[in-house]
Write a structure and sequence with these properties.
- The complex is a heterodimer of chains A (114) and B (114).
- By secondary structure, chain A is mostly beta strands.
- Chain A is built from no helices and 11 strands.
- Chain B has no helices and 12 strands.
- In chain B, the strands form 3 sheets. In chain B, strands 2, 5, 6, 10, 11 and 12 form a 6-stranded mixed beta sheet that branches. Chain B has a 4-stranded antiparallel beta sheet with strand order 3-9-8-7, with no helix packed on it. A two-stranded antiparallel sheet of chain B has the order 1-4.
- In chain B, a hairpin with a 6-residue loop joins strand 10 and strand 11.
- Chain B is globular.
- Classes of the chains: A mainly beta (114), B mainly beta (114).
């Protein structure tokens, strides 16, 4: 089954404690991205990756890092989380190129930073 | 710059009545347009997309959307709403050249009343 898997689904952490949210896709997609969803703001892109070892900032990259060492994995790293990073996070993957392919989304990670 | 507007935060409709969720967009070049649905505690699920061709696009769960180039709109419709259609709906646009970035609207909560 084609899917994007995020872990963990829920996470409560304290300010300043480094954390990683994992994302893995089994569709051999080149393009992967991270979004955060906040009420009234919709989904905003944090970082994206066009392929292995190719990453770039999205609209709200401050306080986040990513890596793309393998095609299937695209972890999101918060080096020093702060309360304003409390949000619902989604990883997505898609295949760029010819035509318009839809993005596939993970189930989401609800992060609370206290 | 690309943008998507969903003018209604919430739409209420009685079960069995037709529903419309509005979306307007701004993009240079030809747009690729998408609708996604988000159920509670779930990721975004793809409903339908417009690439080119027929202005009326049919998708999952009986939903359809009408592309109107002159009004730059892509409204989501369903002839007869179900209580189970109650969810959060997102419109998204992607440019047809260059970037593969998806721009999402702020979402519209659909409430179908029994």
């Amino acid at each position: 089954e084609a899917q994007v898997t995020q872990n963990p689904r829920y996470l409560i952490t304290v300010t300043g404690k480094k954390l990683t949210v994992t994302c893995s896709q089994n569709m051999n997609h080149e393009y992967m991205s991270w979004y955060r969803q906040d009420p009234g703001l919709g989904l905003r892109q944090i970082y994206y990756s066009m392929n292995v070892e190719v990453t770039d900032k999205g609209d709200v990259p401050e306080g986040y890092k990513v890596s793309r060492k393998e095609k299937r994995n695209f972890p999101l790293i918060l080096e020093s989380p702060s309360p304003n990073q409390t949000s619902l996070y989604f990883c997505a993957s898609s295949r760029p190129g010819q035509g318009a392919t839809e993005a596939f989304f993970g189930q989401g990670t609800r992060l609370t930073v206290v | 710059a690309q943008s998507v507007a969903q003018p209604e935060d919430q739409v209420n409709v009685a079960e069995g009545n037709p529903l419309t969720v509005k979306c307007t967009y701004s993009v240079s070049g030809n747009p690729y347009l998408f609708w996604y649905v988000q159920y509670p505690n779930r990721g975004l699920q793809f409903l339908l997309k417009y690439i080119t061709g027929d202005n009326l696009v049919k998708g999952s769960y009986g939903f359809e959307a009408e592309f109107n180039k002159s009004q730059t709109s892509f409204h989501l419709k369903k002839p007869s709403a179900l209580v189970s259609d109650s969810a959060l709906y997102f419109c998204a646009v992607r440019g047809s050249s260059g970037t593969y970035k998806y721009i999402f609207g702020t979402g519209t909560r659909l409430k179908v009343l029994a």
